[in-house]
Amino acid sequence: MEARFGRLEASRALARREEELAANYVGDAGVALAKLTLARRLVRFGYPQEAAGLAREALELSRARDAVSEAARILARVGEEEEVETLIAEMTERWPEATWVQALHIPFARAELALRTGEPSESIHQLETPRPFELNRLEVVELRGRAYLETDQPLEAVAEFEKLVAHDHVNGFDELHSLGQLWLARAHLANGDPDAARATYETFFEIMADADEGIPLIEKARAEYAAIPGAKG
Q: Is 16 helix (H, G, I), strand (E, B) or coil?
């Protein structure tokens, strides 16, 4: 919940508490998932190295399916190609019949890695496999929208991000919904609609009104907004 409003220090504190509780009542697998949840939030807000470090710590604690798949996705967004390919090979070998692994987690990791390594068209291609799950796993929608932006298809990107923000009832505490406003603003701007972009940036900043200072993603968004004609000082 805190991350949805950019309160990452509070999110870090909650994650530490979750790790303590998991260590006492669940064990290493629970601690690993707490680390990965925080890592996912941090990589989205622009802290790739901290997120990657947490993902690696989680893998030292657990090689359960959820841990391996989540770590693969986080490391893919950071661009750690060799590590991601190793994790994909592990998932392929250990869970060949698991639908969520083969139809969602592996293609998503491949899509994230493709986008990070400069192959957005391949990213879009990989995301066709998990399309049936996307309204329950909105990170698929968000990633496809980012890939459309990188392939100069802003109108398609707008449609994806509008879908994302329209479904904020799905896992409503997830920061992905707030960040969807920022990506929608960027898509409007790329689509040649500065008025819609400006209004959507302002919605994003309203959501992030109590965010921590100095968050890389938010600082970048402020710079983008300031360059739009008619932006508020």
A: helix
Question: Helix and strand tally (H, E) in the chain?
Answer: 13, 0
CA–CA distances in Å: residue 66 to residues 17, 83, 106, 121: 20, 16, 12, 27
pTM higher than 0.85 for the full model? yes
Q: How far is CA 74 from CA 41, 58, 77, 139, 181, in A?
A: 10, 11, 5, 12, 21
The CA distances from residue 174 to 103, 104, 157, 178, 211, in Å, are 22, 19, 20, 8, 15
Digitized pLDDT (tens) for each residue of the chain, 233 residues in all:
799 999 999 999 999 999 999 999 999 999 999 999 999 999 999 999 999 999 999 999 999 999 999 999 999 999 999 999 999 999 999 999 999 999 999 999 999 999 999 999 999 999 999 999 998 999 999 999 999 999 999 999 999 999 999 987 666 678 999 999 999 999 999 999 999 999 999 999 999 999 999 999 999 999 999 999 988 87
